[in-house]
């Protein structure tokens, strides 16, 4: 039987399938990232970070002497492809843990697969429903802060700025919808009225209609929930339509494109960002400041550019898995895949006061996100830089 | 021989069943995808490959089936198995509604565009109807399909569900395309005009085919949703439609094309993923580019996809078995001997007419009356005030120089073009401006100046001619019903072929020499047992001996009571067989009379025959 | 909706509509001459916009790669047209020369106008080469196959765009920044520029088709391929020129839209499809029709999104169905023989 299997395999896949060359002692982590498709602007930074992380760990002698192997697969931003890839990583590559996926729909799609297979998964996508309710997300964690953390920081700033009426415009996708949902939860009790909420598609080229409606509603401030260049297009459309109020953007905008495209027209725009974005302005009182700076320096040395916040999410997934693996290695060998996966999950859930790029992680059986309000830093845009709001 | 074939079949089936055990566990996932996509692509092959209707919106039906099933089961507590059925019905209904648009009657670009737009609209609806579909985040609470306590979760188990689907889809297509309705589908693609002229309801068949393809997409989508246990709009967007169409194009017009195309694309994805070194970090990018390049390359190398290859392999298998349709053609092809033909034909023709319930046309009755017929194209009056009468049991020649309006007159009379003025009466009933397929049902059919044969075997072409005299729609074809009718059509077709003296039953019709193509068209018309037959230059391209035989055939048909309108440039032929002749010039009737009268008419000589006389 | 808002929507709608109109022109040109529905039309827009950005700002230097591609295609074209295999050195030489040229000028941050010209010409070469390499060999295969081929081109070109320029977005400077106020509406100079360019292209096309011998020949080839061949116009040459002009026009559209919406590797498909819708509304064969159709789509889109931003896009595409219905109902019955 075994012989037949091998033969058929060889015949079908001859010279095509590159089967894993990992030894049983390697720590194999699978990563399914959106390298192509609509989310590729997020995924490229994540891939770079994971490759760099793998190299750095192995250059430093691996995880307690075990080689770290990160198997990268492209999901093409497609949930069903993400499922297929994760199944492949689990059954084919015997991954001890999975980092998946870049977007919320992909991350939601793979829940069933990792739950059934019993493999710890760290998602690097936004939506809260990826890890909530934790009782039904036993094997799933995530590194980016919850939308609620970021929205709350923005709403707090609006209150401080005396905003009374607010307009919203966001993508009609999972990201934009998540922002709007959290906003609707955060506003009651703050005295801020949501006077108009508009949506647009990632590929829309003309937002003048939505802008006109927002302008007509006369809000004190407008919150834009999108990723570049959509957020830029929306802000520009509002300015073209004569909007004079305050602009709030979201943390999804903070890759290098946002500032480069917007230039001086962005001055005064306010947004809550992740610590990595303001790495050179971080108050050293923050316990994770040095982790952030180390990451940025390493990344810059390797790629010559500042990492995006998405790269930071991926890096954190690596840090968490490294730390948890170290604990597990004391008692379990990576060759016992099933036991290692289970112990790894328990170790991740047990991480407390773990300092990483996105902030301080405090996982618990009821909280698989683990980030608190310190992960959101309020900034304003000034002449192409982010200035922290005191 | 038979045992060998049975062995092959059993072996193949056993291999399909055993596949999940033979391959590493992960490949069960790929097998499921191949089977699901394969079933859906099989529907697309029917649409694109056989019916020639391009669909860039199939992903929408796929999505409706998926959402329909899991939303009903997940949100409304419908039994998952029942939800598969309901999802399929929902997709079929959507297919029916979209297909109802008269756009469908137009194949080609407009249809492709309308389908594309429909696909984009459907994706927007999946995204925006968030309270039902879960919106952009997708729909997560998908229940599990289980049967007698066995849960279909593990891909190795789920595979059998998808296998049943794919096998049923392939069997349905294989059964359909060889049936009466299947011939109509294929005929439409070759020539809608010719299909209509043998009485095929082109619009209705397109609609049915469309619904069938939508239903297959819907069931595939429902299975996909249960397999992944999660759905979101991006799985059913334009990209998905393109992917499905790609599979269909790679497979080509063959019952197995969908599954083969799905296998190629799915395995290609996997292979590219494995082969392209991940080190560059560009694996995904290279994959997209390679995908595009392969698509373009395949179309350049083989526009028919893998169909030629599949057909070759399949034929090898079929030859081995005696029970399959093409095989019986062999003994028959050898059987007809020249001497035996006329007797058989003469004996059977009137008998069959009586059996089919049509009143035998009595000589002298009015067959076709054309009164003051006119047709304008913009400023050009192609036919002007044309009147004549064609009686049963008569051959009327219609002659005139090139550009005299003969072919236009033919198109108007046979219902392909509506007249600008005038009336057409068939058997005394006013049938002015009736569509070609209605004319066919009333007993009038035609041949074409540039032969319009269907791209199928000679025998099937003539069987297609039996369309209105047999029964069985698309659904009967799928289920393989109506074998008795099929057998009757085959008998009829052989008789009609024998009558015109064609023996190459299994040959591809378009590969015949021109002369034989013309005879085949006549045979196809005869298979309809028409009362009025319009022949557009049937002798063009025929050799002398063949013309003689044709003349004999026409005379014999006339003697049986058929009314024949003959457009022909070969004056010797017309003069020898026609009872009367109408001469047209510049769209108008120049004169009318017996061959002798016409031959001596000075106007005719001046306009037309002058050349011969001189 | 106030009058001011309506005017504002009208102007922005016309601006976007002008882009769809340019794409529609390109599609109609290709369709008329070669019977190809070009799904990849929008990718020419992307190539044009990103190349021009790279040449002007030095931000998106993927233009170098495109230059190599264009150079190679140019060489290949010369080779294929003349069928002189001794000229085999031309493709690499052309590629090298262009590569050197672009390398030489890229640091200088070309003035936008020059960048636009270079980008347009480079993309025109790419268009011609794609015709020669992928469409012409399949000429006998028919329309369905063309559709699949251009779908493959769309996938391939978009993938190349991602390789050359990455997933980022890029801005192209307006020719003249700022706005003017007229009738209470502030109109950006870029909007006026886009509209003017569209009219100019239409006028140039008209001159080309009406006043030049080759233009007339092209029109003849569009009307009757066989007839054109009989009088010595090769449909292949006509197709090549149609693709080149069409790709050039689309590249120009890309440069015009870039300051308004930014340029990304995946900007093409949506624009191309709307251009297509516009062209079909205009009848898919007439040039003024395509322009009017494109403008109509742009305006409709603006007002539809104002009514319901969630379904604005759906309304635009849903419009196709009644329009096709109208075409079918007013057209001839049945398919001709």
Question: Whole-number average pLDDT of chain A?
Answer: 88
Distance between the termini of chain A: 69 Å
Range of helix content of chain B: 55-70%
Count of DSSP-assigned helices of chain B: 26
**How much is the radius of gyration of chain A in Å?**
22 Å
| Cα radius of gyration of chain B in angstroms | 28 Å
* Unreliable stretches of chain A: 9-21
Largest beta sheet: strand ordering of chain A: 7-6-8-9-10-13-14
Strand order, largest beta sheet of chain B: 8-9-10-5-11-12
- Beta-strand segment tally of chain A: 14
Low-confidence stretches of chain B: 320-364
How much helix is in the residues of chain A? 40-55%
Structural class of chain A: alpha/beta
The DSSP helix count of chain A reads: 12
Shape of chain B, please? Answer: elongated
Task: Kindly describe this structure.
The complex is a heterotrimer of chains A (390), B (614) and C (337). Chain A contains 12 helices and 14 strands. With 390 residues, chain A is an alpha/beta fold. In chain A, strand 3, helix 4 and strand 4 (121-123) form a beta-alpha-beta unit. The longest helix of chain A is centred in the last third of the chain and has 21 residues, at 309-329. Chain B is α/β, with parallel strands linked by helices and 614 residues long. Helices cover 59% and strands 11% of the residues of chain B. In chain B, the strands form 3 sheets. A 6-stranded mixed β-sheet of chain B has the order 8-9-10-5-11-12, with helices on both faces. Chain B has a 4-stranded antiparallel β-sheet with strand order 4-3-6-7, with helices on one face. A two-stranded antiparallel sheet of chain B has the order 1-2. In chain B, helix 21 (483-500) packs across helix 22. The longest helix of chain B has 27 residues, at 202-228. By secondary structure, chain C is mainly α. In chain C, strands 1-2 form a two-stranded antiparallel sheet. Chain C is globular and about 65 Å long. Chain A binds chain C through residues 36, 38, 40-41, 43-44, 172, 198-201, 203-210, 212-213, 216, 228-229, 232-233, 240-242, 255-257, 260-261, and chain C through 2, 5, 8-9, 12-13, 15-16, 19, 59, 159, 162, 166-171, 179, 186, 188, 257, 260-262, 264, 266-267, 269-271, 298, 301-306, 309-310, 312-313.
């Amino acid at each position: 039987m075994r012989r037949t299997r091998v033969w058929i395999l060889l015949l079908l896949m001859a010279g095509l399938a590159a089967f894993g060359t990992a030894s049983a002692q390697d720590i194999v982590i699978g990563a399914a990232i959106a390298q192509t498709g609509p989310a590729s602007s997020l995924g490229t930074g994540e891939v770079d970070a994971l490759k760099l992380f793998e190299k750095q760990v192995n250059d430093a002698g691996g995880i307690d002497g075990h080689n770290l192997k990160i198997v990268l697969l492209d999901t093409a931003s497609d949930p069903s492809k993400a499922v297929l890839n994760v199944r492949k990583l689990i059954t084919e590559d015997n991954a001890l843990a999975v980092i998946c996926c870049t977007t919320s729909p992909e991350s939601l799609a793979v829940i069933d697969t990792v739950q059934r297979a019993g493999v710890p998964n760290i998602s690097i996508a936004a939506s809260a429903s990826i890890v909530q309710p934790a009782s039904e997300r036993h094997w799933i964690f995530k590194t980016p802060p919850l939308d609620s953390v970021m929205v709350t920081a923005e709403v707090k700033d609006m209150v401080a700025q005396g905003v009374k009426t607010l307009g919203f415009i966001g993508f009609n996708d999972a990201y934009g919808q998540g922002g709007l949902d959290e906003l609707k939860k955060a506003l009651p009790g703050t005295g801020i009225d949501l006077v108009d909420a508009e949506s647009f598609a990632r590929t829309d080229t003309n937002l003048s209609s939505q802008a006109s409606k927002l302008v007509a509603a006369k809000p004190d401030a407008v919150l834009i929930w999108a990723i570049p260049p959509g957020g830029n297009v929306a802000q520009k459309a509002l300015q073209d339509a004569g909007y004079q109020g305050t602009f709030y953007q979201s943390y999804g905008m903070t890759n290098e494109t946002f500032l480069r495209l917007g230039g001086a027209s962005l001055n005064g725009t306010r947004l809550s960002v992740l610590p990595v974005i303001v790495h050179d302005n971080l108050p050293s009182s923050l316990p994770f400041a040095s982790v952030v700076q180390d990451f940025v320096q390493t990344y810059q040395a390797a790629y010559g550019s500042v990492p995006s916040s998405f790269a930071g999410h991926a890096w954190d997934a690596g840090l968490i898995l490294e730390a948890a693996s170290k604990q597990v290695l004391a008692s379990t060998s990576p060759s016992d895949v099933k036991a290692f996966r289970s112990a790894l999950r328990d170790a991740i859930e047990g991480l407390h006061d773990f300092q990483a790029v996105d902030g301080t992680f405090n996982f618990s059986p009821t909280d698989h996100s683990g980030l608190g309000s310190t992960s959101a830093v309020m900034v304003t845009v000034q002449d192409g830089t982010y200035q922290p709001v005191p | 021989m038979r045992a060998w074939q049975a062995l092959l079949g059993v072996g193949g089936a056993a291999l399909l069943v055993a596949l999940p055990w033979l391959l590493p566990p992960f490949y069960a996932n790929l097998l499921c995808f191949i089977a699901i996509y394969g079933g859906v692509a099989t529907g697309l092959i029917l649409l694109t490959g056989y019916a020639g209707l391009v669909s860039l919106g199939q992903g929408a039906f796929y999505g409706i089936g998926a959402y329909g099933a899991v939303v009903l089961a997940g949100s409304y507590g419908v039994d998952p198995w029942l939800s598969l059925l309901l999802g399929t019905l929902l997709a079929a209904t959507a297919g029916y509604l979209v297909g109802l648009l008269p756009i469908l009657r137009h194949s080609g670009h407009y249809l492709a565009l309308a389908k594309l737009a429909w696909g984009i609209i459907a994706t927007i609806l999946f995204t925006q109807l968030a309270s039902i579909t879960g919106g952009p985040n997708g729909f997560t609470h998908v229940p599990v399909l289980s049967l007698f306590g066995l849960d279909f979760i593990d891909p190795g188990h789920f595979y059998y569900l998808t296998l049943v689907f794919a096998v049923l889809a392939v069997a349905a297509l294989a059964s359909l395309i060889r049936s009466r309705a299947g011939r109509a589908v294929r005929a439409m693609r070759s020539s809608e005009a010719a299909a209509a002229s043998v009485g095929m309801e082109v619009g209705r068949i397109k609609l049915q085919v469309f619904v069938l393809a939508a239903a297959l997409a819907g069931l595939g989508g429902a299975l996909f949703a249960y397999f992944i246990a999660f759905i979101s709009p991006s799985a059913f967007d334009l990209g998905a439609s393109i992917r499905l169409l790609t599979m269909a194009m790679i497979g080509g017009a063959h019952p197995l094309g969908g599954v083969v195309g799905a296998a190629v694309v799915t395995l290609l994805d996997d292979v590219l993923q494995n082969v392209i070194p991940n080190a560059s970090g560009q694996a995904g990018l290279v994959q997209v580019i390679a995908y595009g390049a392969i698509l373009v390359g395949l179309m350049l190398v083989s526009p028919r996809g893998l169909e030629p290859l599949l057909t070759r392999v399949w034929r090898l298998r079929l030859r081995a078995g005696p029970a399959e349709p093409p095989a019986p053609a062999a003994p028959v092809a050898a059987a007809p001997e020249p001497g035996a033909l006329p007797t058989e034909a003469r004996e059977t023709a009137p008998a069959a007419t009586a059996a089919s319930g049509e009143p035998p046309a009595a000589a002298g009755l009015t067959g076709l009356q054309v009164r003051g017929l006119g047709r304008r194209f913009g400023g050009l009056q192609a036919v002007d005030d044309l009147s004549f009468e064609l009686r049963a049991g008569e051959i009327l020649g219609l002659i005139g120089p090139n550009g005299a309006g003969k072919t236009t007159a033919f198109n108007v009379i046979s219902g392909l073009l509506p007249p600008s003025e005038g009336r057409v009466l068939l058997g005394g009933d006013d049938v002015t401006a009736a569509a070609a397929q209605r004319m066919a049902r009333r007993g009038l059919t035609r041949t074409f100046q540039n032969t319009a044969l269907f791209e199928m075997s000679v025998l099937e072409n003539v069987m297609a001619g039996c369309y209105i005299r047999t029964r069985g729609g698309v659904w009967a074809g799928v289920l393989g019903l109506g074998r008795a009718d099929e057998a009757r059509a085959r008998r009829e077709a052989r008789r009609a072929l024998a009558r015109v003296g064609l023996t190459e039953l299994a040959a591809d019709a378009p590969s015949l020499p021109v002369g034989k193509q013309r005879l085949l068209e006549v045979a196809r018309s005869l298979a309809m047992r028409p009362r009025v037959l319009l022949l557009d230059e049937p002798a063009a391209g025929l050799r002398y001996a063949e013309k003689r035989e044709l003349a004999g055939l026409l005379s014999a048909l006339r003697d049986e009571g058929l009314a024949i309108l003959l457009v022909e440039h070969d004056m010797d032929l017309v003069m020898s067989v026609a009872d009367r002749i109408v001469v047209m010039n510049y769209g108008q009737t120049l004169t009318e009379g017996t061959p002798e009268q016409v031959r001596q008419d000075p106007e005719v000589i001046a306009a037309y025959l002058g050349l011969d006389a001189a | 909706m106030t009058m001011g808002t309506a005017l504002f929507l009208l102007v922005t709608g016309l601006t976007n509509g002008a882009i769809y109109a340019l794409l529609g022109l390109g599609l109609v040109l290709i369709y008329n001459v070669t019977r190809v529905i070009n799904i990849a039309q929008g990718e020419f827009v992307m190539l044009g916009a990103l190349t021009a950005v790279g040449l002007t700002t030095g931000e998106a230097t993927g233009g170098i790669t495109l230059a190599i591609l264009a150079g190679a295609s140019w060489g290949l074209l010369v080779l294929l047209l003349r069928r002189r295999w001794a000229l085999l050195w031309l493709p690499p030489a052309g590629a090298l020369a262009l590569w050197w040229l672009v390398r030489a000028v890229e640091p200088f941050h070309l003035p936008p106008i020059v960048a636009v010209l270079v980008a347009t010409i480079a993309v025109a070469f790419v268009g011609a080469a794609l015709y020669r390499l992928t469409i012409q060999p399949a000429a006998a295969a028919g329309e369905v196959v063309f559709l699949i081929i251009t779908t493959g081109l769309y996938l391939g070109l978009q993938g190349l765009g991602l390789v050359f320029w990455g997933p980022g977005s890029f801005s192209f400077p307006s020719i003249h920044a700022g706005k003017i106020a007229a009738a209470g509406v502030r109109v950006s100079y870029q909007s006026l520029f886009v509209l003017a360019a569209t009219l100019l292209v239409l006028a140039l096309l008209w001159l080309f088709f009406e006043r030049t011998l080759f233009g007339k020949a092209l029109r003849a080839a569009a009307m009757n391929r066989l007839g054109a061949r009989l009088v010595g116009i090769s449909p292949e040459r006509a197709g090549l020129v149609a693709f080149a002009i069409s790709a050039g026009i689309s590249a120009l559209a890309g440069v015009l839209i870039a300051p308004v919406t930014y340029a990304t590797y995946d900007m093409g498909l949506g624009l191309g499809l709307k251009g297509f819708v516009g062209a079909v509304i205009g009848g898919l064969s007439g040039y003024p029709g395509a322009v009017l159709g494109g403008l109509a789509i742009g305006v409709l889109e603006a007002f539809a999104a104002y009514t319901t931003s969630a379904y604005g896009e759906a309304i635009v595409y849903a419009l196709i169905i009644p329009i096709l219905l109208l075409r079918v109902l007013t057209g001839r019955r049945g398919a001709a023989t």
